[in-house]
Amino acid sequence: MDISSYKGVMVFAEQRAGVIQKVAFELLGIGRDIADRLEEPLVAVLMGSGLSPDCIQALIAEGADEVVVVDHPRLDLYRTGPCAQALTQVIGAVKPGIVLLGATAIGRELAPIVSARMRTGLTADCTSLEIEDGSRNLLMTRPAFGGNIMATIICPEHRPQMATVRPGVMRRKVSDPARPGAVRTLEIDLDGSEGPVEVLEVVSEKAALKNIEDATVLVAGGRGLGGFENFRRLEELAETFGGMVAASRAAVDEGWVAQDRQVGQTGKTVRPDLYLACGISGMIQHIAGMEESEFIVAVNTRADAPIFEYADLGIVTDANRLVPALIEELKAVKASR
Amino acid sequence: MKIVVCVKQVPDTTEVRIDPATGTLIRDGVPSIINPDDRAALETALVLKDTTGATVAVLSMGPPQAEAVLREALAMGADEAILVSDRRFGGSDTWATSLTLASALRRLQADLVLCGRQAIDGDTAQVGPQVAEHLGLPLVSYVGSLRPEGDRHLIVKRMFEDGHHVLRVQMPCLLTILKDMNTPRYMSAPGIFEAFQRPITTWTLDDLDVDPSQIGLKGSPTRVKKSYTKGTKSAGKVYEVDPREGARIIVENLREKFII
Question: Which helix (H) or strand (E) holds A250?
Answer without folding.
Answer: helix A249-253
